[in-house]
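Look over what follows to help learners.
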Amino acid sequence: MGTLRFFNLQPLMETYGCRYLFETGTGIGDGVHFASYYHFERIWSVEIHPDIAATARERFEGDDRIRILNETSEQALANVLPGVDPGKPILFWLDAHFPGADFGLATYKDEPDMDRRLPLQRELELIARLRRPCRDVILIDDLRIYEDGPFEQGAMPDFAQTLPPHLRNIDFVLRRPWSETHDLQRFHQHTGYLVLAPRRAER
């Protein structure tokens, strides 16, 4: 399990002009809490479980910048992104997977719908479609779900790995349009991170 705190957000905001943060997978809200110390104009965080979302809303009700959305990450992206000026880059923190498993509300295999259990590919497809031209920065957690590597916290445990071997790759990240517009960097700390950053920074 990774953390947004791994990243120093200020250089990303300054270099790429990120004005907003969009998180998928609120959990207990630590990512939102960390982001709230930075000068984002708006912070959206998506949580699929209503009770967890309600708790997060209570935690952040004093900060008018923060919106906790109780829906799937795909629904939230489809609802929010069309209303955001493409000229104002978003910093995405994509961490929605295995709904409820980290909180004992379900097992890793309880969700039969692959797009709900591991929505990353669909999230990236929506961002690419709705954010043209895409000058956003995308941080992705838990790289070890998709590939092997010298991860600080080890390989994905067998009991939690629900991807068949032929899908254990990040080919969908390496394809167009990302291969044409963004550079990719891997980090093996914690459970692994991917960073997609625009090739030419624009303010």
